[in-house]
Write a structure and sequence with these properties.
345 residues, 76% helix
Length: 345
Amino acid sequence: MTTGAPPTEAAGPARAGASAGRDVVRRALSLLAPLAGLAVLLLVAAVTTPGFYSAGVLQLVLFQIGLIGVTAVGQTLVLLVGGIDLSIGAVIGLTTVVIAEHSRGDGERLGVAILLATAAGAGVGLLNGLLVVRRQVPAFVATFATFVLVQGVITAWTRGAPSGNIPGELSPLGIGRWLGIPVPLWAFLVVAVVAGVVLGRTGLGRRLYATGANERATALSGVRTRWIIAGCFVASGLLAVLAGLINAGYIGYVDARLSRSLDPNSVAAAVIGGIALTGGRGRIGQTVVGVTLLAVLLAWLRQLGAGAGAQLVVSGAVILLAVWLQGSGWAARSPRRIKQRDGVR
């Protein structure tokens, strides 16, 4: 007479399969929710603002998706390792000032100016990373400090009145089109695809997720978590430089104030798409949806006559809503996460 497998042996694969199924459903829901919100917003915008789908408005929306999207990808990388970057807007402003002050509108000096801006952005990102991993400064405090520092450098350097012109050779990056689509959107798509492949298809991506989910355990397993965290901050700084170049090419003049809203917008786009503020959870695809949703929302507000202040209020409200939703969703599992963090089974 044969006997079946012990219940414990049969239950193991069953539990694993059920857990995998729940993960798939959870990921699908996390993407479907912002997609549903985007669909509703597009419908509301069409009803309340008849001119919303005009060519001019759509081109502006696509540009905003590109500009916000580039910064949101950098912010996503930092959020995935459990941090946050509040210095993005300052780096964008610094990039614009460096380009204008060094080139003085001369296209022949643009290459060197871009190199200087890139070095500055990478330096700010590295400083953020070192403050977080070496000095154990909370990312919120560290990046806010560098934001203030960079703004101070800009003010001292320009004496509060930036001068110089943006070379015309940079304008295609901001206002150019390829196949009828704004170049900034193409830049965002390329950055998003590269980041998505790295996160989803490489060992580096798996180590990055592990670092965000449980840095202590990941470090004990031999992963250089400090390098990964610092690298994410550097990547965010470099992407902020790219956004600064796009912004400079678009507006064609120096105004460091125009970049200040990109800090909250980059955070809002990532978290509204479903990137976890606790680290270790989220996909680039979610960020893409969040960026699109936020860009459409801001464009709709502009069509309704809302000013920059009202748009910042909405971005802040989006962040607060996402924080509240993520907090309530994780509350039931917090004891389990604490045990995992401390290495207790």
